[in-house]
Structure formats: structure tokens, C-alpha cells
């Protein structure tokens, strides 16, 4: 590992997370999407675990093997000279030691930040991990990062609104978010919240930078900045849009044999230039 280079990138990511501007993260899933996002002027690359899983033939939800995810994180990290933050799902193991190991392997792959979520995919839906264990997982991740003297940016995701069996998911999310920040997380990710008033309440109650997942019904980025949201990401939305466009093109080819769908495609030389 090139520790000095990783430290510089981690410090850059940290400064953007805590800076005055909202950090906008259009999530990527391969080298091509990474180059496109970088070419558009974004300062940080964030991976989509869902997008990577789908591209390799897996369903989302930690069905992909950790080594396969790390391989793609490495390819993405080596594609651009920008800080990369990787979605490492639930850390590929329930115990704190597994999360710590995953953080170090993610750092070796070239990323200087990662999401770690506190729920697992079960047959009946997402299920939150026990509170104490969830806090210990973030503590272990921070100790692992400190052991190599890299200010690795931990974005602790809580699925209080998604996997909670609690009658009060708001308080569940706030309690977990603040506990993760105290345990060593640099920011917290509270997905699946689109209501502006609810997001405003989260910003007031959570004692650190907040990441919101964008979707078609979300407030605009300027509105989220005004509220005080620190970072926003789009998850698997770009990859879903890409697959939707392929599906539409297939329908046109199959049903009518027309090619109007190709009019807005990147040209071969444009893509080669991006990748060179």
C-alpha cells in the first residue's frame, strides 16, 4: 500500500464530508462508469454495492463474495486518481473482527472510505443487528483504520427506517446514528428517508454529518444542502437507469427493428478517450 497517497486521499475525503458544501456522490459500478463520473467533475468516487453485484451476476444484499467486491473496488480505485469510498454492505461478517478485516482489505484495494450497514438481508426482509454488536462493529473498524495511521472515512449506515421492528423507527435511527458517531464513525448514512421535514429532524438530532440516499421523490440537492445534509448518494440508480435503457433498446430492436435508441449513445472514440 502507498500509505502517503492513501492518507492524502483520505484527508481530502474527510475535508469534503465536513466542509461547507454538500458532497454529491453519483455511485459507480465499474471502470467505465467511474471515468464518466470523474470526467463530469465530481471530486470523489463512490461505489454502488448493488451495481457491482448486478454486473457480476448476483442479487444485491451481500450475495456477492467479498473477494469479488474487493476486486471491483480495486479496479475502480486504480481507474482514477481520486478518493474512493466503497459500499462494503454489512462488512461480510457479523462479528466486529470481520468488519475490521474488511476495512483493511478495502484500504488495500485503494479505497479510503467505506459504508458499513447495520442490517442483514433475510428471507422476510432486512433485519437489524443487535444494538451493542452494531456499535462494537464500528469501534472495531475505527481501531483497524487507526492501526495503519490512515484517516479512513467510515460512513456508518443505519437501517432504522428499513429493517427496524421498533414502533419508533425515527428514535431507533437517531440512537444508532449517534452511537456509531461516538464509536468512531465519521458520518452516518440514513437511507430510505425522503420526507423533507423528517430529514430536517434527523439533521437536528444527529450529532454529525449525515448522508441521505437520493431518489425520484427526494428533496432537491440545494434543498438538502439548506437543511444541513452533508453528503448525498444515489445507490444503484445509475446502473438501474443503464439497464432500463438496454431493456428499451432491446424492445425496439425486437419489435420494430429500429435504431433511434442509439442516437444519444457515446461514440466509440469518445469512450476510448475516456478510458485512455
Query: Helical element count?
Result: 11
What is the terminal-to-terminal distance?
24 Å
Order of secondary-structure elements: HEHEHHEHEEEHEHEHEHEHH
Judging from the principal axes of the Cα atoms, what is the shape?
globular
From the helix content, strand content and strand pairing, which structural class follows? alpha/beta
What is the level-2 CATH architecture name? Alpha-Beta Barrel
Structural domain tally: 1
- The CATH class, by name, is Alpha Beta
What spatial order of strands do you see in the largest sheet?
Answer: 1-10-9-8-7-4-3-2
Instruction: Provide the residue-averaged pLDDT.
Output: 96
Largest sheet: 8 strands, parallel
CATH superfamily: Phosphoenolpyruvate-binding domains
Integer-rounded radius of gyration: 19 Å
GO molecular function: catalytic activity
Pfam family, one: PEP_mutase
Organism: marine metagenome
Protein name: Isocitrate lyase/phosphoenolpyruvate mutase family protein
Overview of the molecule:
Helices cover about 50% and strands about 15% of the residues. The strands form two sheets. An eight-stranded parallel β-sheet has the order 1-10-9-8-7-4-3-2, sandwiched between helices. The chain has a two-stranded antiparallel sheet with strand order 5-6. α4 (about 65-75) runs parallel beside α5. The model has no long low-confidence stretch (mean pLDDT about 95). The chain has helices at about 5-20, 30-40, 50-55, 65-75, 95-110, 130-145, 170-185, 195-205, 220-225, 235-255, 270-275; strands at about 25, 45, 85, 115, 120, 125-130, 155, 185-190, 210-215, 230-235. With about 280 residues, the chain is α/β, with parallel strands linked by helices. The longest helix has 19 residues, at about 235-255.
